[in-house]
Target: Betaine-aldehyde dehydrogenase
Amino acid sequence: MSGALNGVAVGGVASGDDGLPWIDSHIGGQRVRGGGAVWVKQDPARGTPIGRVAAADAADIGTAIAAARDGQARWAALSGAERGRVLQRAAALLRARNDALAALEVADTGKPIQEAAVVDVASGADCIEYYAGLAAQLNGQQLPHPNALIYTRREPLGLCVGIGAWNYPLQIACWKSAPALAAGNAMLFKPSELTPSTAVELAEVYLEAGLPPGVFQVLQGQGPTGEALALHPEVAKVSLTGSVPTGKKVMAAAAGTLKRVTMELGGKSALIVCEDAELEEAVSAAMLANFYTQGEICTNGTRVFVQRALLPRFLARLAERTALLRVGDPADPATEVGAMISAAHGEKVLGLIRRGVEEGATLLCGGGRVDVPGLAGCFVAPTVFTDCRDEMTLVREEIFGPVMSVLAFDDEAEVIRRANATRFGLAAGVFTRDIARGHRMAAALAAGVCWINNYNITPVEMPFGGARESGIGHENGQVALDHYTQLKSVYLELGRVACSYR
Ligand code: NAD
Model:
């Protein structure tokens, strides 16, 4: 992994005798080896080590904060149009490096190359391009008043922290950094310890595009590094993508200095298929909503509610088509379902599958490990449970693997009540040909994003965020800029100070 991969320098200096490359942090415009704890990064599919990572320690964080302070002052002094130009160049560089970055993402995550080659890098570039266009449009309001000129300014917050999950590492780094940078902030980004590679490449891309050193930096680390950043008094905002328990910890740490927070957390979303739905479309969506990225997607529609009259035909097609999915080496372009991120996570997913069987659900497809010749990683067969009941563990808990629970329902009011009976509220989907019913149900579902007749589509123009314990705030869309700016009101007196004092 060190040296050049399709023209992109990746990795870092080889460490000692074993030849394992270092995957560094990126501080002040340079790759830097952290001074903290060291761990080995495994390829999830092969189960082999691919790099060594050293966490940023307190001194590294101090250096990065100082560089961010300097860089942010220079960056915020540019016009929005100038910032936008740099971001446009970064988006173009990302697209030019699509294949190398996609391959790196596959080695880090175990997801199929057929996905990474068209989604991961491209969706990051789309996002940077979108905010590049908005950078020059950040503005306030002028508010009419008889005695004053009143206006508002949108100002950057200063130093923002992004903390990423491991399922879409590069996309997450782009979704957080693009609006932050467009608004004139600096960002310190901590990738997941399981996927440290592509954020460093993004830092190189930004630098080459003309971003001043210190404006986007990458600090490698595990939970404690994230916690140190969330606690740091000079940080104005933390945006986390991760699980609900981590979200609660990060919010508590951020509360010490009343930092702003954006929380993109977990879910257990409902996909509702009404009896008038177009069957093949609904089956396609249910499969994508459970098996894409081997089920490791936060918004997945893992509770598939199907109206009773359609259930037999739905299950028949679902079983036929699920049996055709190719589980295998993520680097093979024919592979449709890759490896679980780690052996530990794979065991957790398999444990929840066993629990489903114990609790009385019926296995329609899958239900266990798949052996992929020559690869030591954990591969889980796309799994469908039927005869599920709402109280079952697999219906209540986020599994984050390729496991679908199918539940029967009879009428609209009932399915809305059952779909909403969860503390999560990330996403939901409805399949129906009845336009009024689609809108009515979307309005009634307790979720941050509702799709009608599709699932898991996240164009950058559309705000993305969870309700209830699934999140706070939004990424994407114009609204994300509000989360990275502070509104200032300015009042200019046009008359005289009304003073009754002597
Ligand atoms: P996680 O919560 O274990 O870790 C997320 C990040 O937080 C990692 O970088 C981790 O190092 C860091 N972290 C852990 N403890 C911390 C602490 N105390 N303080 C600061 N940072 C800390 O989540 P994960 O296993 O990486 O990702 C899977 C979870 O992420 C799932 O629940 C999934 O639903 C969620 N997710 C949500 C979205 C979304 O946009 N809503 C997207 C992807 C994943």
